[in-house]
C-alpha cells in the first residue's frame, strides 16, 4: 500500500483585536492598523480524531524507512510473535514481539531487502550476496550474486528468486546453490515487482521501452532460466489455469478512440509456448462525455480478479463477472455506482467484503461495501503517508507523525500513537501486537482488545 488516505489540513490564521479604544488623558485615540491585501477563506476543515493516546511498549533503532538507494525496501518482517529487522548498524536482529528484547543478531553490512518463509529469513548483503538464516539465528548458507541493488526476494516452492531491475537469479532454497542467472537488455527493460511460477514456467513482468513504454510479461523455463516467450502490451496474469495464461491487453493507440463503446480485452496464451488461444471481450457503453471529466478517477477500463469474480471499472460503474463462466457479450453479475466519488484510484484489493481505493483529491483511504454499495472514508487531521488494513484494523501514519488505529467495521478511531517522525513504512502485526516502522525506529504497540 505503499503503498493511501486522509484529509489535508488547510487553516486560515486571523489576527484578533479586542474592540476597546485606547484611553489617553481622558480622550480616545484613533488606532490605525494595516489591512490585509489578500484574504482567502477556503472553507476547509479538519476532523479532530478522538481516541486514546497510547505509548509504544518498546522502541528499537532500525534503518530509516526512507533510506536510499532502496526505493522498495523491507526493513522488518513479523511472524510467530517475533520481529526480524535490519538494525541501524545494518545487522539482522530478532526481537521478542511483546517486549522488544533482542534475541540474537546476525551479520553486518546488510540491506533492507528480506523475507521470511518456512522458518528461514532470506536477505541481501551490500556486496550483493543472498543469505539464509533460521529463525533461531543459525546461518544456513550464503551465495554471492553481485546484485548490490537487489529489489525483491521471492520464495516459490523449493526456489528463491532474486530480482534487480532487468536481472533475475534462481537459488535452491535449501542449499543456496545457484540454479541460474539471466539478464534482459538493460536499456529496454525495467523490471517490475511481480513474479509467479506454475507448471515449471516462471512469469515475470517488466516495463519495456519502444516508441512507447508498456508492460510486458516474459516466460522462462523455471529449471534453466531459458526464455520461452514474451508478450508486449500485456499485464501480469490475472490467472493461469489448465495451461492457459489470462492477461489484460493494453490497447492504447491500437484501436479507434470510440467515446461511447468501450471494452476490456483479456488475452489467452498457451503457458508453454505463448501462442494465442483467443481472447475475451467485456463490452459496455457510456454516454458521450461532453464536459471532459474523468470517469471513476481515470481508472475506467482497469480490471482485477478476486477469487472467481472479475471486477472491471466501466466509467461511473464498477461491474463484476463470473470469470470462469465466460460467455461473449454476457451481462455483469453485479453493478455498483461510482458516480459519487470521481477521484478514486482502485487499489485492486478486497477485504472483509470491502473494495479499497485511494481518494487522490482528499488523500484518504476509501472503501466501498460490496453488499450495499455504500462508500466509507477514514477521516483524519493530516495527509496520510502510509495506510495498512490488517484483519479488522486500519492503521494510518500521517504526515505530522501521528499514527491512528481504526476499527474497520465501525470506522471508529480506537487509538493514537505520537511517533515523532513524518516517514512511515508498512505496519506489521503478530499476535496481539502491531509494529510501526516510523523514521529510524521500530515501535511495538500492544493492540486494544477490539483489534487483536
Tell me the CATH superfamily.
YVTN repeat-like/Quinoprotein amine dehydrogenase
- The helix content is under 10%
Unreliable stretches: 1-32, 39-45
Q: What fold name stands as the CATH topology?
A: Methylamine Dehydrogenase, Chain H
Largest sheet: 4 strands, antiparallel
Which CATH-level-2 architecture? 7 Propeller
Secondary structure category: mainly beta
SS element count, helices: 0
Rg, Cα atoms, Å: 26 Å
**What's the mean pLDDT score?**
86
The oligomeric state is single chain
Number of domains: 1
Instruction: Write down how many β-strands occur, each being a DSSP E stretch of 2 or more residues.
Output: 38
Tag the structure with descriptive keywords.
452 residues; mainly beta; Methylamine Dehydrogenase, Chain H; 4-stranded antiparallel β-sheet; 38 strands; 0% helix; 49% strand
What can you tell me about this protein's structure?
By secondary structure, this protein is mainly β. It has one domain: YVTN repeat-like/Quinoprotein amine dehydrogenase (Methylamine Dehydrogenase, Chain H). 0% of the residues lie in helices and 49% in strands. It is built from no helices and 38 strands. It has strands at residues 22-24, 27-29, 58-61, 76-79, 82-86, 92-96, 102-106, 110-117, 120-125, 129-134, 139-144, 152-156, 159-164, 167-172, 178-183, 189-198, 201-209, 213-221, 227-232, 239-241, 244-248, 261-270, 276-285, 303-306, 309-314, 317-322, 334-337, 344-351, 354-359, 364-369, 375-377, 384-390, 393-398, 402-407, 413-418, 428-430, 433-438, 441-446. The strands form 10 sheets. A 4-stranded antiparallel sheet has the order 3-38-37-36, with no helix packed on it. A hairpin with a 2-residue loop joins strand 4 and strand 5. The radius of gyration is 26 Å and the shape is globular. Residues 1-32 and 39-45 have low confidence and may be disordered.
